[in-house]
Automatic annotation (TrEMBL):
Protein name: mannan endo-1,4-beta-mannosidase
InterPro entries named in the record: GH, Glyco_hydro_5, MAN-like
Highest taxon listed in the record's lineage: Eukaryota
Any single biological process term in GO: polysaccharide catabolic process
Enzyme class: hydrolase
A Pfam family reported for this protein in Swiss-Prot or TrEMBL: GH5_mannosidase
Keywords linked to the UniProt accession: Glycosidase, Hydrolase, Signal
Gene name of this polypeptide: MAN6
Enzyme Commission identifier(s): 3.2.1.78
All copies of domain Glycoside hydrolase family, residue ranges: 50-380
Length: 384
């Protein structure tokens, strides 16, 4: 889904806001990325505990204590570091930490032959861009920030699943008989697995720590907003998630895994179809409950874009819809899935004020209030 406006993501134990700092203020980013072995001194990285899931809670692997998280989305960190603006990355992470935030969701992919692509073609990775991702993770660790790293896009931005299909077709693979070749064709699934393996086994050129052993990584997100419109029953996407989540876990037992869902209910979920923003949402080949219930998926996720999903609705109708949407997913996380539920993207246009409050603020407040209420009861949604 196209995103033109700031987003707010609310985690079951957290809040994620969207930052897009424009730099400036005389800040001069470094012209190139230099591993610490080239530096005159090497600062000791702070110790961080891995985070685990205990039922519907996130907990510290060291103490077992509940972990309450708040953070933000900055998808562009690797791209900025790869194009000579590493200082913007450092400043963003520093500012986030100064505000008391410590989880950042960002892209760990850029597919295709364009400038800044990490994966130029299947199995061919750009060392310079990989080093930029190293830098992002290193700086996150240095600032005690944990990252949710997304591995591919359903959308065409930064290559996405369409780029994988193009690679296969360019190699002579016949995909015409497939419902959705990205999710179905074994060669394309192999491309994705090879990429995931390259990421998980990567040894950071700044810290010397393998990604699979890096506590600054909060979780792996299999795909941003997966949809499979050619298979509305969700069975094809379900099989892909099951296979890929197990594959990630086979190489990395240290980190949490999530899907990256928008949170729509599938066509067979008759008791919840009224929670969807429209009839169209049930035809996208995903199902929040079915997809999130997979054993190797540690927590569920949902997005919300009321301005885009129900564009003709009044503000009052959007508030009512968003309230129902959040309640339904919190309840499903608590009572059905028995897993954490993260609202990782919520977006609304910054429009006219209503009684001194922007429309967007009212919509976001609706989500916050739901999270706070749930947190006080130590239920699915919490906010420190």
């Amino acid at each position: 889904m196209a995103r033109r406006h700031a987003v707010l993501g609310v985690l079951m134990l957290a809040v994620i806001v969207y930052f897009n700092w424009g730099g400036g203020g005389g800040f001069q980013p470094p012209s190139q990325l230099l591993p610490p072995s080239w530096w005159p001194f090497q600062p000791k990285l702070p110790d961080l505990a891995f985070l685990r899931r205990n039922g519907t809670r996130f907990v510290s692997s060291d103490t077992g204590d509940d972990v309450y998280v708040n953070g933000w989305n900055s998808y562009w960190l690797m791209s900025e570091a790869a194009t000579g603006r590493a200082g913007r990355v450092e400043e963003m992470l520093r500012r986030g930490r100064a505000m008391g935030l410590f989880v950042c969701r960002t892209w760990a992919f850029s597919d295709g032959g364009g400038s800044g692509a990490l994966q130029i073609s299947p199995g061919r990775l750009d060392f310079r861009v990989f080093q930029a991702l190293d830098y992002v993770i290193y700086e996150a660790r240095r600032n005690q920030i944990r990252l949710i790293l997304c591995l591919v896009n359903d959308l065409n931005a930064f290559g996405g699943k369409a780029q994988y299909v193009k690679w296969a077709e360019s190699a002579g693979v016949n995909t015409s008989s497939m419902e959705d070749p990205f999710f179905a064709h074994p060669i394309i699934k192999g491309y994705y697995k090879d990429y995931v393996k390259a990421i998980l086994t990567r040894k950071n050129s700044f810290s010397g720590v393998r990604y699979s052993d890096e506590p600054a990584i909060f979780a792996w997100e299999l795909m941003n907003e997966p949809r499979c419109v050619s298979n509305a029953s969700a069975s094809l996407l379900q099989a892909w998630i099951t296979e890929m989540a197990a594959y990630v876990k086979s190489m990395d037992q240290n980190h949490l895994v999530t899907v990256g869902l928008e949170g729509f209910y599938g066509s067979k979920r008759s008791d919840r179809l009224g929670t969807n923003p429209g009839v169209w949402a049930a035809s996208l080949g995903s199902d929040f409950i079915q997809n999130s219930a997979i054993d190797h998926i540690d927590f569920a996720s949902a997005h919300a874009y009321p301005d885009t999903w129900i564009p003709k609705a009044s503000l009052e109708e959007k508030v009512k819809y968003l309230s129902k949407w959040v309640d339904s997913h919190l309840s499903d996380g608590e009572n059905v899935l028995k897993k954490p539920i993260l609202f990782t993207e919520i977006g609304s246009r910054l429009r006219e004020k209503l009684g001194g409050m922007y429309d967007r603020d009212l919509l976001l407040k609706t989500v916050y209030d739901k999270i706070y209420k749930s947190a006080k009861k130590k239920q699915a949604g919490q906010e420190p």
